[in-house]
Amino acid sequence: MNAPQPAAPPSLEVSGLAYAYPDGHQALFGVELTVARGERVALLGPNGAGKTTLVLHLNGILTPGAGSVRVGGLPLTRATTAEVRRRVGIVFQDPDDQLFMPTVREDVAFGPANAGLRGADLEARVARALERVGMAGFAERPPHHLSFGQRRRVAVATVLAMEPEILVLDEPSANLDPAARRELADILRSLDLTLLMVTHDLPYALELCPRSVILSEGVIAADAPTRELLSDAELLSRHRLELPFGFDPSVPVPR
């Protein structure tokens, strides 16, 4: 009889994470967060709550003052930073912070090429990433000739080309028109990845993430199914989160 296989480790384990900036401002106070493989989680909270600080710890841009980060069971250390950065891809709020090459193809190829991929393997990786975001026909276009929504999709492709385990998105719906917002949601739902989405767009969180976490004043203040969390008006008010006027989180979101 075959022995049972050990369970795969969570995609993300943050344990006791604390951080103070050089000016002495304490941004995180012992954050505990576990995200399972394939889970989609929204990270909510008011401005100044520590959301960006937390995200910048996930691939070693910031170093914890205390606590630890593990990605797919791999502890984040100086020796593992390069591998953790491959596993954790961050899509910034402004795609122009991520797109800087003359063509879309060169932007998407940049990361894998720097990691040593060459020739047909590199071209296949680029083509696959662009196909996943619906931008396969735009490889030779200059990014600055694209619409904002198209640039955001290309920014996602630059991260997907690294074949990450975790996709972290900072305000992915910001500045998108309704059609681009829906198109991006369809793309994100189709990805077989662990997703952590930082957003103030509570309806988008409900549409895409079954689970939500509120980070407030540097600690996890709530962790619950998104619909349950958004139905708690007192909780939202206490942490300066607001639903759009007339939005009812109990009504299923159309897709």
TrEMBL record:
It comes from the Bacteria. The keyword Translocase applies. Its main location: membrane. Keywords: ATP-binding, Cell membrane, Membrane, Nucleotide-binding, Translocase, Transport. It is a peripheral membrane protein. The keyword Membrane applies. Residues 12-242 form the ABC transporter domain. InterPro entries: AAA+_ATPase (IPR003593), ABC_transporter-like_ATP-bd (IPR003439), ABC_transporter-like_CS (IPR017871), ABC_transpr_CbiO/EcfA_su (IPR015856), Co_trans_ATP-bd (IPR005876), ECF_ABC_transporter_ATP-bd (IPR050095), P-loop_NTPase (IPR027417). Belongs to the ABC transporter superfamily. Probably part of an ABC transporter complex. Responsible for energy coupling to the transport system. This is ABC transporter ATP-binding protein.
